[in-house]
Each structure stands twice: as C-alpha cells, then as structure tokens.
Amino acid sequence: MLVDRGVGCLLGGAVGDALGLPFETLSARRIAKWFRPGGYQLFFGRGMVSDDTEHSFLVLKVLHLSQGDPVRFQRLLRRALMLWLLALPTGIGFATLRALLKSWLGLPVRWAAVNSPGSGPAMRAAVIGCYAARFPERADVDALTRAATEMTHANRKAEIGALAMARLARMAALSNTMPGWQEVRAELQAVGGDDPDWVRLIALIEAGLEQQLPVPDFAVTIGHRRRQGGYVYFTTPLAIYSWLRHPGDLIETVAAVIRCGGDTDTGAAMAGGLAGASLGEAGIPAHYLETLCDQPLSVSRLRRTAAQAFGTGPASGLGLLFFPLLMLRNLSFLTLIVAHLFRRLLPPY
Fold first, then answer.
1. Where are the annotated coiled coils located (predicted)?
2. What does the pLDDT look like over 73-111, one tens digit per residue?
3. Is 142 marked as a binding-site residue?
4. 194 labelled ligand-binding
C-alpha cells in the first residue's frame, strides 16, 4: 500500500503543480474567467511542472539514498539543491534562491538559511511524510522535515507549515480511509500549538468545515491575498482545507485551490500531494498523467523514482546528465512561460 500511496503523493503533487502553473499570481476573479477544469492550459492541453515538483523529486531521491538518516539527508539534499540552482530553475522562491547562493559561498546551514515564512519547505514536505511512513521505527518525520526546512528557511512559521504537511501526508499514507478532522486537528495542534496565528488557522479550518464553506470562501476568512500567495500560512491551510473538503477527488481538491488565486502552482501541488497520499495513483485520472509532458522529469521517471524509494529496490543516483538536461529544459521552458505571460495580457480580464 505504501508504494502506491508514495507514487500517488509525488504524481498528485506534479498534476496539481502543472494545473496551477498557468495561473500563478492571477486574481481569483481573473482565474474564474480563464480556468477550465478537464485538462492543462499551458500549451495546447499539455502540462509541465515547476520547481515544486523538482524539489519533491530531489527530496525523494535523497531520502532513498540517505535511508532516512537526517544528517546525511540534509547534507545530500543541500548538495542536490545547489546543483539544481545551476540548472537555472524558473520561478524559484526568493528565500530559497538567497539560501542556496549563500550555500555556494560556503556558509554553513545555520548562516545560509533565510528568515522567511515562505512555502518552500512545506511544498517539499509531503513526500517526506510518506517516506517516514515506510520506516516508522527509523525515520523520524519531524527530524527529516526540520532537516529539509532549516537548509533554506530559519523561520518558525515555515517550519510549522512543513511539519503539518509532512505529518498529514504520513497519516494519509498509513490510513485505509480518509483521516477525520479530530485526527487532523490533533496533528495540527501538535506541530504549532505555541503559535497564536497557527491556532487561529486551526479554528478557522474547523469553522469552515462545519459551515461547509467552498475553498475560495475559506480563503477569504484566512485573509488570503494574491500578492502574498506564497506565504506559508496561506498555502498550507488552503491545501489542508481543500483536501478535507473534497475527500476522494484529487482534481477538485487542486482545482479549488487554484480558484483562490495567488501562488496557484505551489498551493495546488501541496493539495495534490496530500490527496495523492490518500488515494494512490488510482485516484489520479489517467488523462492528466498522459498529457503531463515534461523532460527529464517525465511521468514515468517520477513513477519509477517513487516506486524505488517506497519499495525495496536499491537507491540510484540522478545520473551525470540530469542537471545539464534540466538546464536545457529550463531554457526552453522559460521561452514558453514568457509566451504564456504575453497571452495573459489579452482578454478575458
């Protein structure tokens, strides 16, 4: 079961990422006129992934190589992300960029990390939670999540968001049924009960579920704003709420987050990761996997990597050509994104 849930987590995040990417930074009003569920809207019905999926892929690779040892995991992940930066990723978060540049200057982790409440650690945390479910006696989900967080972000809110995503993904991967609100609330309180802002968000999630608020209406209650869409206390509660609000429906889970506007690719990737951890690959309509066309992170490569990490196969490296190929891909991807941005200048407004 864990292999299927792990594959579902990585692929679900990729599908959410690709669906949300064309609408990043747009307002909810504009998205309502553009967004049409049923397929990707980046390039003639085809989808591509962003840094959200690339991070999750690298995290899972390194988790497998390190076998869940937090110290080795952090060291290898830092090295992998530093090499990833050389591939000129499009849309990298500013805090992550600064932290990796400081790492290249030779600064230790505690000095390279940036005090930012961004979503970088949370967006790569779901696969950590799923992996920790594989070795509950050896892999401490909190230790692994903190190791991945403190590499780039030295901020309590960023840590809380990442811990919440990891713990809930672990719970989802281990559960035969959709976790109930009482179980979810206990995990959310455990990771951030000392932060009044987080406690307030827990209460708002509970109230929204009781009132059966649509996800965009819930976004209003937490003060979600388009220009601050990458704030972890927006992306994380939105992803969690949509996952709870639309159990059993991965596409609607991510679509509801996209309709809120803002950092749509990250929010949808996080929601898709949680839904995929609950449903496995079977919960992702085949059409969305068949039309997700990217290289070197193809669907088959993502599936194979997750199956190796969550199964019993030996760990394999990235290969010498991975990062050069990723750089070539990113240069062509940038051209496509620029063309899409010009398209967004046209109606409908």
1. none
2. 999 999 999 999 999 998 899 999 999 999 999 999 999
3. no
4. no
